[in-house]
Every structure is written in C-alpha cells, then in structure tokens.
Design a protein that fits this description.
Blueprint (H helix, E strand, L loop, with lengths): L1 E6 L5 H11 L5 E8 L5 H8 L3 E4 L8 H13 L5 E4 L8 H5 L5 E5 L11 H7 L4 E8 L9 E8 L6 H29 L1
Parallel strand pairs: 1-2, 1-4, 2-3, 4-5
Antiparallel strand pairs: 5-6, 6-7
Helix pairs in contact: 1-6, 5-6
C-alpha cells in the first residue's frame, strides 16, 4: 500500500483530514509516520492517538539547517515513504534533501500560487484587494513554494473578511484538496 510520511509543525488539521479520509475508506494509503520540528505540535498528538509513529526532531540539537535536515530525512527515509507530505511544516528545507526526493514530496500552501509564497497569505490577499483566495498543493523544489502545482481550490473573498475569517472558510476546502491530491497520487502509483 502507498506509504505516506507527514511533516507538520502545527496543530495537525491537514493530518487529521488524511486520517479521517483513510478511516472512511476514501484514501488507500498507509500513514507510516509523522515528524515535527516542534515538541508540542498538535500533529504529534493526533498521530499518536491514531496509532501512527510520531517523532519530534529538535532543530536545536544540530549546528546547521543542513545537519538537521540530513538527520530528520534519514529518519523519514527509514520508513520508506512513497510520498512525503508537508502539511503545515514551517521550515525551509535545504536543497540537497529536496533534490534527493524530487517528485516524492508535496506541500499544501494557503494561497493561489504563484501568488503569496511564504507567510501571512490571508492578510496579503486582503491587502491586495483580491476577489478570491485559495490553497495550492505543489511539488516541493528548492525554491520556496515554487514547485509545479498539482491542484488548487478557490473561495471568494467577501466584504468584511479578516485574515481569521478567510482562514476559517478556506480550511475545510484545503483539507479536501489535500485528501484529493494524495488519493490521486496513490491511484497513479497503483497503476504503475
């Protein structure tokens, strides 16, 4: 079965969406491990509660970003993933670890890329006067949020929207988008 490792730094809502879809029989994957760079990341607790291996790798234990990335991805590779999903993982990865996993690592980003790579995407969309906002799933390349886009979802920006309201309305669509893309990648792998 299609083996997936998730990297997450935060609350883990995208991970939770993957777990729910798998439990409902909508996602033919094996979630083999979750890694985080934050000890108190909600994603680690969600993984443990679901019986998924969960591991915190402390960036402060390493002299450089490269050393951290090498150690974390050595652990990730130990699980032999077919796909690595960055789901709210808030670290920029070194080019060497990205290059070795080209085409096997995706990221979900809360904007309609190529608009608004990086942080504060909801505020930036509002500040620009955009009429729509959304989320993108893309392949990870060494450049930040610049890899080939696999799929996007869109929502209208309505009068009175704040960054918080926009984020809250986008999140369920973001979850569905990620589940859909992972399901498509698993199905493609099953056909090959």
């Amino acid at each position: 079965m299609f083996r997936v490792v998730v990297l997450a730094s935060g609350r883990g809502s995208n991970l939770e969406a993957l777990i729910r879809a798998r439990a409902a029989g909508l996602l033919p994957i094996n979630l083999v491990a979750v890694f985080s760079d934050r000890a108190k990341a909600g994603a680690l607790e969600i993984a443990r509660a679901a019986g998924i291996t969960a591991q915190f790798v402390n960036p402060r234990d390493f002299d450089s970003r490269e050393a951290f990335d090498q150690a974390m991805f050595a652990a990730v590779d130990g699980h032999a993933p077919d796909l690595i999903v960055l789901a709210g993982f808030m670290r920029i990865l070194s080019p060497s670890v990205v290059a070795l996993r080209a085409g096997r690592m995706i990221n979900i980003h809360p904007s309609l890329l190529p608009k608004y790579p990086g942080l504060h995407t909801h505020q930036r969309a509002l500040d620009a006067g955009d009429v729509e906002h959304g989320a993108s799933v893309h392949y990870v390349i060494p450049d930040l949020d610049a890899g080939p886009i696999l799929a996007q979802t869109r929502i209208p920006i309505v009068p009175g929207d704040s960054p918080e309201s926009l984020a809250a309305r986008l999140l369920p669509k973001e979850h569905a988008l990620l589940v859909s893309v992972v399901a498509d990648l698993a199905a493609q792998a099953a056909r090959t």
